[in-house]
Amino acid sequence: MKYKKGLTLLSAGVMAAVLSLGVTGCNEKTQPQATDIVAEKTTQVTKLEGKTFGTFYYITVPGGYPGGKETLQKDAEFVFKKVSDAISTFDKNAEIARFNDFKSTEDFVISGYLANIIEEVSRQSLRVDQAMDPTVGPLVNLWGFGPSGDIKKSPTDELIAQTKSYVGLDKFELRRAGNTAYLRKADPRVALDLSTIGEGLAADELAALMDEKNIPSYMIAVAGAIRSKGGNADGKLWRVGVEDPLSQGAKVFQVVCPQGMAISTAGSYRNFFLDEDTNKFYSHVIDTKTGRPIDHRTVSVTVIDKSAMVTDALDTGLLVLGAQEAVQWGNKNSTPVYAIEIDDEGKQVATYSRAFEPYLKCVVNQNIATAAPPAQGSN
Question: Quick count: other Cβ atoms within 10 Å of Cβ 346?
Fold first, then answer.
């Protein structure tokens, strides 16, 4: 399955590494959802790791997975294929790819599953003033980060303006008639790109599957998107790490205790190209309002919510807005947001919303090894 380089994921340009040790310092009174932590250690653990969407995934199930590692792998592959079949822009047989290739303004039939995804992504887009926009596809391709292939030179102002003319939530229509859903383009050149939520969607689907199996504890990491429940094999809260953006390796910048919530990080420093004429680096994260890659000093944004698909959508939009606006948005919307930017001296500075603070209570030692190789984002 080929996704940019996988999904050309606009989110999760960073790792969210699973940390090996649980902690006792988390504020369980502040976060009551953390009270379902496993009380006893377990020696039976099912672990699985591999590649999907052009990036890595890691799954750990303390207490063991029904059917063992073989069944877990089959279930994971089923989920990844389900997501890919719906939203891949690299697989020509995927629904989104076929819609993008449909050069017409007539109705295009899509599945109810894809319709639900598009509706949710559009809703989250509006929440962040369309800083994350599912119609970004033509701009992603223009800058060489899509299925059309890489480029080594930035496009002209005229070409950017022309492409922007068919980008925006008003450039497509989604409607339903009974059990059938339809997409319609306002311009035949409209192309959707849902890769920003691919990792989070896959993590949510796997978590839902495990919940159906009544699995009390698990950790699912699909690159920078994580879902977890219960506790680790030592019976303590799961911890994850936000990657150090300036590190050349898998170094943790901040330890976070998600306490059963979804968490994902979008970063601007993993996927970029160097313009051979100007010798300037361009990030894969595109601001649809300018039609250009972001060029501010914010290098990553982490978001916590109940759904990893939601965090994957929000972290991308908030990264586009930049650290100051992202944290302000988090405070206004009571959403946990954590941003890292580079100051005038070239140092990394973190700021976060008030709602994020309880998830930092579990930090007792940031020099902790990861339980598995960090899941690198595809960007």
Answer: 8
- List C-alpha distances in Å: 163 to 138, 167, 203: 7, 7, 32
**How many Å apart are CA 354 and CA 176, to the nearest integer?**
39
Q: How does DSSP classify residue 377? A: -
The DSSP secondary-structure symbol of 64 reads -
Nearest CA to 373 among 247, 238, 251? 251
Enter the DSSP assignment of 238: -
The dihedral sign for the CA sequence 350, 315, 304, 78: negative
pTM, two decimal places: 0.83
Tokens 């899941």, residue located: 375
Q: Under a CB-based contact definition with an 8 Å cutoff, are residues 242 and 13 in contact?
A: no
Query: What are the structural domains, with CATH classification, of the chain?
Result: 1-372 (3.10.520.10)
Residue with tokens 């089923």: 78
Q: Is the pLDDT of residue 268 over 70?
A: no
Helix, strand, coil proportions of the chain in percent (round to 5)? 30, 25, 45
Dump strand ranges (E) for 20-143: 45-52, 55-62, 108-110
Which residues share a beta bridge with 177? 180
CB 55 within 8 A of CB 375: yes
Does the pLDDT value for residue 15 go beyond 80? no
C-alpha distances out from residue 147 to 7, 18, 88, 151, 154, Å: 9, 31, 10, 11, 17
Q: How far is CA 120 from its chain centroid?
A: 14
CA angle 53, 58, 59 (to 5 degrees): 120
pLDDT in tens, 92-141: 999 999 999 999 999 999 999 999 999 999 999 999 999 999 999 999 88
Give the three-class secondary structure for 298. Answer: strand
> What is the token pair recorded at 234?
């030592």
pLDDT for position 149 = 60
